[in-house]
């Protein structure tokens, strides 16, 4: 196995400035702070930058996940509503289970970044074991994330966690491991129980 990406970016696509600007600002900040930690690997895999129109989407995503050190999840209620993003999440859970056999994980491979909280609660997949970072105070007026002192400590925590896994993975990956064999799991069920329909009384 060759490590090609520091982190796979998993997010629900947005059409308007708020979602797209947050994603782009976070990508830019993490690339800047991750660069000193890597040799020749890409800091991040972001589908909007690295996939073309003629690509076999499922196989490209599966391989990119397998060749990534960790996964960043930009959590919004929209994220858990989309089957494909839940599928990426489930795929990284499978990868984590496999890597637990190679080395003692210093933390989970999935790093949730809270952009927008669900009005009821965070799902257990996001709020459960491991570290999540809360960026829900971000607005379009927040400016440049990589230079904003309100967000830099959380960015540094994310970078440190990815760097830890990177060095563990470099030392512990079986030489015969082949990421071309990894396939995405089926779309998992909804993260929340679907409420029964309300009928007029």
TrEMBL record:
Q: Where is the TIR domain?
A: 8-137
Which InterPro entries does this chain map to? TIR_dom, Toll_tir_struct_dom_sf
GO biological process terms held by the UniProt record: signal transduction
Pfam short name (any one): TIR_2
In terms of Gene3D superfamilies, this protein maps to: Toll/interleukin-1 receptor homology (TIR) domain (3.40.50.10140)
Q: Which domain of life is it from?
A: Bacteria
Q: Which SUPFAM superfamilies match?
A: Toll/Interleukin receptor TIR domain
The identity of this protein, by name, is TIR domain-containing protein
Q: Which organism is it from?
A: Duganella lactea
């Amino acid at each position: 196995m060759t490590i090609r990406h520091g982190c796979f970016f998993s997010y629900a696509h947005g059409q308007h400035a708020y979602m797209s600007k947050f994603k782009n600002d976070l990508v830019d900040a993490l690339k800047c702070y991750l660069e000193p930690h890597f040799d020749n690997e890409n800091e991040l895999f972001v589908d909007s930058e690295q996939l073309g129109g003629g690509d076999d989407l499922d196989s490209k995503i599966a391989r990119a996940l397998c060749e990534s050190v960790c996964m960043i999840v930009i959590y919004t209620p929209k994220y858990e509503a989309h089957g494909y993003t839940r599928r990426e999440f489930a795929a990284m859970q499978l990868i984590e289970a496999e890597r637990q056999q190679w080395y003692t994980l210093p933390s989970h491979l999935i790093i949730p970044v809270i952009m927008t909280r669900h009005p009821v609660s965070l799902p257990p997949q996001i709020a459960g074991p491991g570290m999540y970072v809360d960026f829900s105070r971000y607005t379009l007026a927040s400016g440049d994330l990589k230079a904003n002192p309100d967000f830099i400590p959380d960015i540094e925590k994310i970078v440190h966690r990815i760097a830890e896994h990177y060095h563990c993975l470099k030392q512990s990956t079986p030489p015969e491991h082949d990421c071309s064999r990894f396939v995405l799991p089926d779309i998992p069920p909804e993260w929340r129980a679907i409420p029964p329909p309300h009928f007029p009384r």
